[in-house]
Specification:
Helices cover about 75% and strands about 0% of the residues. It is elongated and about 110 Å long.
């Protein structure tokens, strides 16, 4: 009989569920009692022909291709030994050969429709394919196999959530929480869904239980802040600010909520500090920059506020917007609507500080509106900041210098 030593099973399980997390970002770590069935049953009643030490070594060293080759050579895919078949399915799954794994686990299920391991991995495979309806089928079967399993209730709730069936998701999260209220992943999923349903009092009570034991519990601090912000309880939300500084988590969304809460209750220094903590780490979002700028405005630091607003504008406007303004100006010029074309270039320059916008304004005053005086003003502004690099840019630069020189010469002649 093929039997893997218990300590080897533990090592394999850690690798197994770490890989599952990498493949399925929505999954949480499965409870150890569930995970153990995935591999612990493997080896019970397996074929005498399998070399247990060799197969155990393949799995521990993550040599899944070698494990597949070894098991296929032993004709396991056509075997009727369900544990050996599950071992082959596991090797395919861990090598990310999901279609092959699906076929193998289907064979296992055809031999025993209530085999926990085969159904569990089938659900994971359908999660990878984003086929949530089939994933749900297997989770419901798993609940028939283990009707008191809190983790499977939670994963079923996750699947209903992915299918946008939030009412049913909440029911399954509630059942999971009822069975295992001390599990942070289950409690957080349940409370988070309660917030989505605007059931704030119940969500707050769940968070309160965990925060009473650990005031720096990151998921529950986030959840409490979100709850109070949703209820527009700014003072209560802001009360978590000091804890958030201690936690020192890089989470722009929660930080923006705290900045907003502190701003609304006129804690402008704290509002700015919340934003600046992330800005100093080069984590810039429009919302962070906006609240930082507004806090500085309220503190009468107008230059700093403008500086932050400029950064905010740079983020808010697409890099392609400059091109769009130039194209819009071209259209207006084609229609001989020179003032509208100038306005488009003027906006482009304000947003992007592109010297060519100044050149084009000067050109429109010179050639379209026949105003040499205004043309010269913008040409001089262009020359003051232009740094021509390409051949076309150098050509424009030389043209502007020549026009200014010619206009200056013309004015000198008139003044004589």
């Amino acid at each position: 009989m093929l039997t893997i030593p218990y300590h080897s099973i533990e090592q394999i399980l850690i690798k197994t569920f770490t890989a599952m997390l990498n493949i399925n970002g929505k999954l949480v770590v499965l409870l150890f009692s569930i995970a153990i069935s995935t591999i612990a049953c493997y080896g019970q009643g397996s074929s005498e022909e399998l070399d247990k030490s060799k197969l155990s070594e393949f799995f521990q060293n993550e040599q899944y291709a070698d494990a597949i080759q070894y098991l296929e050579n032993k004709k396991i895919s056509s075997s009727t030994d369900i544990n050996s078949i599950n071992a082959l399915g596991y090797a395919y799954f861990m090598s990310q050969s999901y279609k092959e794994a699906q076929q193998i686990y289907s064979k296992a299920i055809s031999l025993d429709s209530l085999n926990f391991t085969a159904n569990r991995f089938s659900a994971l495979i359908y999660n990878h394919f984003k086929d949530y309806k089939n994933q749900l089928f297997y989770y419901k079967r798993l609940l028939r196999i283990e009707p008191s399993n809190a983790a499977i209730y939670k994963l079923t709730g996750d699947t209903y959530s992915l299918l946008k069936n939030t009412d049913t998701a909440l029911q399954y999260y509630q059942q999971a929480y009822k069975r295992q209220p001390s599990n942070i992943n289950i409690a957080f999923a349940y409370a988070n869904q309660l917030l989505d349903e605007e059931m704030y009092a119940t969500a707050d009570s769940v968070a309160k239980v965990f925060l009473s034991k650990d005031s720096l519990n990151v998921p529950m601090v986030r959840l409490a802040i979100r709850s109070f912000m949703s209820q527009k309880k700014m003072t209560e939300a802001a009360s978590f600010t000091d804890r958030w500084f201690v936690i020192n988590e890089i989470d722009p969304k929660t930080s923006v909520s705290l900045a907003q809460a502190n701003y609304n209750i006129k804690n402008y220094e704290t509002c700015y500090k919340v934003c600046d903590t992330l800005l100093k780490q080069n984590i810039e979002t429009e919302a962070l920059l906006y609240y930082a700028s507004q806090a500085k405005y309220k503190l009468n630091e107008y230059n700093k506020s403008n500086e932050l607003l400029k950064q905010c504008l740079n983020l808010a406007v697409s890099k392609n917007t400059n091109l769009y303004y130039f194209s819009r100006a071209d259209n207006f010029e084609g229609l001989k609507l020179y003032k509208k074309a100038i306005a488009a270039y003027d906006t482009a320059f304000f947003l992007f500080q592109d010297p060519l916008a100044l050149y084009n304004i000067g050109r429109l005053y010179e050639q379209g509106l026949k105003s040499k005086t205004l043309a010269d003003q913008y040409y001089r502004k262009y020359l003051a900041i232009a740094k021509p690099g390409t051949k076309d840019e150098r050509r424009v630069y030389e043209y502007v210098k020549a026009v200014l020189a010619a206009n200056e010469k013309e004015r000198s002649v008139k003044n004589k």
